[in-house]
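Sequence only, no structure available. Ideas?
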Amino acid sequence: MTDTLTLPTPRSLRLPQPRTLHVTQGHVWITIEGDAADHLLAPGQTLPLPARRHVVIEALDGRACCQLASTACSAPPRWRTWLPSSASAPSTNQRTACG
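Reply:
I predicted one. Tokens follow.
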């Protein structure tokens, strides 16, 4: 799922699940609760956004456009939890659902 954000004014979010922010137009300043540094992104750049933390997104040059995409594969591969100890590891292209 992807949502588009048009930023004429700052947006304050608290996401229920991790998402990825992709800047498509303008420059964006992002502040994430608990991060020591702020993030500045230009068009074409992305930033993973954590779940359940306060995030503020602002356009630096008056207006910006961003996409918020679902993070489809944020967890590490779990193949070791279901493979018997005597089984060999799957091939590289089978280790994660994201390929």
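The helical segments are 79-82.
Hope that gets you unstuck.
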